[in-house]
Fold these 3 entries.
Entry 1:
Amino acid sequence: MTLDASTLREALEALVKAHPSLAERMRDEHGRLRAHLSLFVNEEDARFLGGEDATLADGDIVHVIPALSGG
Amino acid sequence: MAKQVVLMVGTKKGLYTLRSDADRKKWTQDGPYSAPAPIHHATYDPRDGSMYAAINMTWGGSRIDYSRDMGKTWQKSKNPAFPEGSDRTFSQTWHIEPGHVKTPNVVWAGTEPAALWKSEDRGETWQLNKALDDQPSRAKWVPGFGGMGLHSIAIDADDPKKMQVGISVGGVYTSTDGGSSWVQDNAQTGGKEDRPDVFYCIHKLLAHPKTSGVRFMRVHVDVFWREPGETTWRNRTEGLPTTFGFAAAMHPRDRATAYAIPLHDTERTAVDPGIAVYSTNDRGATWQRNDKGLPPGARLESVREGMDTDLLDPLGVYFGTANGDVWASRDEGRSWERAAQYLPYVTSVHAATIE
């Protein structure tokens, strides 16, 4: 989907605004991103781009990928 | 309408349902719902026909789902949430307990980290029971092998204000005011030692559904019985082949009858001569081995929520095993037939009797 955001955090907020049921799937009750969620900006791991403070430019592509873990 | 039995079978990879008519000879299987999520517990609320399931995902977070149409469709609850500033985070749900018939919209849940939650809107939202959370003795709770969970919620048959909760490892707490206040409730009689503090690792605590004051408790070590008016737990382990086990059930009509599946205390599987359901009809004073139909020598395992009964006469008793079997008895636990096999590891069995 196309979102209007200047940071990764704003993009996630816009995503949840569009799909409210994602709120509890992405964050715990204290607002922390869930441990099994990986974020990428233009295929770069967002952890190395400033995390949720990573800046976004027009046309940037964000992937939100839940890691399927367990047995 | 003829009666039906619906077994809600929680597994390590989703929720299955087994359905049968009142004969309970043939079972049809549906599912899984929400695989590959582990389902620690699923239950049916006879007051309004709702179903609840503890969906314990590692990714996307755990949640509680509810169904108002017998499992055809499911909705997600608003997650239990520890208050802002708490150092704890909701991890997973161990048990969901429909409230008393006198409190029609109330549903309870026990979670990890160990906490009690109350819903007053049929499971759509959950509020933390602060009185239990504020117990100074909570500082002494520690995790057991399976984590630190509140997994038993025992509501009195007559009075919904009288209830107990069981915690691993935190012992029993009793409330007589519907959860507004709690006292530790661990004094025992007849055991090897007096352990009144929190250090009981409760495995399952049940309230008799018809007789006020009757309780049956499966602890890490030993089983206990409580009669109306008693304030201690009477040790009733003698006659069982081991002191250890998880699965427990009570006869819904006969207040003196209960069931347990003893396991080896370190290997966590049945001991020789194989898995069996032990039953008592005298409040745990004596125990009988019931293994007719069960595989001889099988070192099977049944865990905390692994056993339940229906409400039919003669009583149906059911248990699930770690190797994916569900066993059913149509004669009050005396003999057994396999209702399902090759399921994932069975973590819970709940028998719903449907009119």
Note: Chain B has one helix and 29 strands.
Entry 2:
Amino acid sequence: MLPCGDSGLLVEVQDLDAVLALYAELVDDLPEGVVDLVPAARTLMFRIDPARTDPDRVARAVRAVEPQSGHRPDAGHLEVPVTYDGADLAEVGRLTGLGERGVVEAHTAQEWTVAFCGFAPGFGYLVGVDDQLTVPRRSTPRTKVPAGSVALAGEFTGVYPQESPGGWQLIGRTTLKPWDLDREPPALLVPGIRVTFVEA
Amino acid sequence: MESWLEVVTPGPLTTVQDLGRSGLGALGVGHSGAADTPALRLANRLLGNPESAAGLEVTFGGLELVAHGSMTVTLTGAPCPMTVDGRAHWALGVVRVPDGAHLSLGLPLTGLRSYLAVRGGIDVPEQLGSRSCDTLAVLGPAPLATGDRLPVGAPSGPLPGVDLALVAAPEAGDVSLRVVDGPRADWFTADARAALLSGAYDVTADSNRVGMRLSGPVLERARDDELPSEGMVCGALQVPPSGQPTLFLADHPVTGGYPVIAVVVPADVPRAAQVRPGQRITFVRIPSAPPDPGARE
């Protein structure tokens, strides 16, 4: 439990599964005075209204929760059609030893869960069930990655919601728009959504 | 007939801001809102608006507008000379602007961000519950451009009987900000933690609503491993590998991958937002954050 002044409390946990389990317990029942909850890779940030509560009280409320390990939030299921022709597909095939076809099969065979969002609005970090597709970021980030690019980095897969710079390995693209302000809700890939990728 | 403001020239950067968006961090959407929140709240109170009404955040003056319809305005934050059809007005006063009048702001005497509020508020459409322009996430109305027409809302309550507020102008010279230990203070050497408090940091020109890049004593890390991205707060002093801290302001990223050595207390963040490039900042560590007199829901 790491306070950030009186406007935040950063709670560090063992691993991503523990983040998901704690998030699942708390997302629908935030402690009094918490105005925002931001899950990340190993932490959850509780943004606090200092007029209504303080980090100690939030820390006590979080300690009182007993998350079940392995419990993932369930915000529904989404199928994402992907054309697997990304610029880094061959490289990812080499890095993983799976070959291009093997990468596509590993990506489509497992169910992914959005663990958290960040980097840009609607950019979800999706975690799978095995580590077959764990690859490093590109050593040189691209200055321009097209919207809809499906990519891998570390233990995560993700879909670029808008054109932006990016260092992830591109394996394909989707026509699905993960972020659309004219849609309610604007983000498709919110924490807890389970995702299956299918070949378009 | 409805009133609106026509933008003749926006100055270096003028954005529409209210009190920001809450509760969307899990979608990767930050809080945004006025960088100097107390200044925007004060402007709205002077005009009888709800404190959450949207106004214009004017960075380093230079804004010129034409009023279409008569309206009432005020200016808070960094005090700029303001003229209405050539006639000078003081900041912090309540000013009637006749239909067709030309309003212009000069350079602020001190501080960086002025708030021009209009009775009834700037009535552009909300996006995700706010009219704030988030320059990082590209949300809300775009920064003002020549020719823009900004609708003015209907007044919601009586004008208060106050026509001049007496508040201190933003500081010139060195500015001292209070900090508490950050969540990753222990990722830094004892020397680095001492250096943060002993030296002065220049505010560089590479500063904006996202954060202020500072230049001063290098802050060395005690460990070299990579920090998994984690949630950030406004006021955080994040330290990238260069060892030069960035002070996060209203449009800061929701998550970040560099350790936070210290956090400027919420009561001092609005003062930080008024420090200009070229001024210097010193940090004073306090054991825990004091109550923020400006905090309210």
Note: The longest strand of chain A covers residues 34-39.
Entry 3:
Amino acid sequence: MRAFDLVGAGTLVRSLARWSRGVGKYGAIARASLATQAVYLGEVAARTLFLAMILFIFLSLWQVTYAALGATAIAGLSLGQMVWYLLMTEVIVISRPRFTREIDAEVRSGDIAYQLTRPYSYVGYRLGHHLGDRLLRLGLGFATGVPLALLYVGPIAIDPVAAAIALAVLACGLLIDFAISMAIGLCAFWVEDTAPFSLLYDRLLMLLGGLILPIDLFPELVARVVAYLPFPLLLYAPARLIVTGDLGSIGTMSVQLVVTATVALWVLGVLFAVATRRLVANGG
Amino acid sequence: MRAIEVENLRRDFRLRVPRTGGLGPFADVVRPRIRAVTAVDGVSLAIDPGELVAFLGPNGAGKSTTIKILTGILHPTSGRAEVLGLTPWRDRGRLAYRIAAVFGQRSQLWYHLPPRDTFDLLARIYELDPARYRPRISDLIARFEIGPYLDTPVRRLSLGERMRCEVAAAFLHRPEVIFLDEPTIGLDVIARQRIRNLIREVNRDEGTTVFLTSHDTGDVEHVCRRAIIVNHGRIVVDAPIARLKRDALQNRVIRLTFATPVDDLTVLHGEVRRPDSYSASIELDVARSPIDRTIADVVTRYPVQDIAIEEPPLERVIAAIYQRSRDAA
């Protein structure tokens, strides 16, 4: 019995070590991607400038709107909360790399085939690469955006629990965005150009995700339909959660997040499997 | 167990042939015209561990398709292939840890990072034990002499430096088989020679099987001992390079150096080239013109100081084989 326990424990330790090595490689890819992004400091500076401009324009617009309506809160948000909300959604959108185009190019050039000769999952490799890239962009975005928001409207009260949950929601949203963007890029196996799909997705995300306008301000019917789409989960949900600290709809949101992420990843998995079959069957 | 074993491998592709004319694209959608192309047509070969093999052929001969099948990124239409006892397209994941591939025009180094970072990353990707990785990377750095620019971003390296890092990266996980596709493309003479020497050195020390594809006959001549030549998807020659050079062309070059200037050189047979008045080279087909008679004639009539008989350059041998197989097809 004792010998059996030892053998079992040894197997478990070996399995865990293998698993951690397997997962570790994607973490290493994310770190390398993050280090690579550090060279694009000029681009980061340009993005910061853009963010400052956008925030200033929206601040002015919302100041006029709040004054015209004589309201202290619109859609449950004060002017300060509204600017912080816009900061969050803008940073999330600006941090999106041109990921679909990268995948499209990789499919078109045939590089994707050569990636298959490496001992990793291509989707995992791309996820690590994407997250490394995106986390740096997000970090820099918030690092430059937060002082701007403080300068424009000052601090707002943030509930630490809600903020932590908002971060988890944001992480889940990044995963969904990754899955959808990669799936669009993989369509290059079947269509001449994925740019129109990518453009459509980007615009839908901006319009229906609540980038400029929280979805509470949409017409009721539109807001009800949009609430079932994945877009608000990527922008509106984490931004609203962090600025209001309102955990009232967290249950529904969690279910929606899990279902959307599962479906998005499943679709990506199926699409990649079909694409790989096509690749190995037809040579791309 | 063989390093690579292929039996009757065949790969067909179905290509769409677009129609011309205004309505052509619409007709293509309704009823596309399909043309079948056979890229690999019954290839069989066996390569033992540690062999240095050149896999040659003109463009479109089926080399890349064969390499793609052997590395697991393409299914064959029919036939059998095993690399290190594994079926590449079925066991791609497991095989990936045991083979390596260098494609001269595709980099595996991260462009904005120093080579050291890519090496560290590859160590994680290939799940190398740190205790084994450290001496391994030190050995490769010393062997490939890449220490001075190990911390320079890849984008700032010359092509020669980058290629040395590419090849070193490929050897990092001690692959048992390495596929090299044009590893010296675009390199200058010295860098090319260096890469060739390094590949041979690692083959000698570690017994790595080398499967090389290159249009540069220098690579083939300096690295490989055996050549497999394909054309139209079929193997047309599979022979040791020395024998190939000896037998494939019956041409020989006689190089002469004269003690005093010779301005007017005439020979019984062969094509004469005169770089200057002190030297000459005579190329002759020994099947039709006996070499001994030509030499005897020249030695008798001219003040020959030195004489050397050379086989034709491999480039011409291969070109002749391509031409013959084209004519036969």
Note: Chain A has twelve helices and no strands.
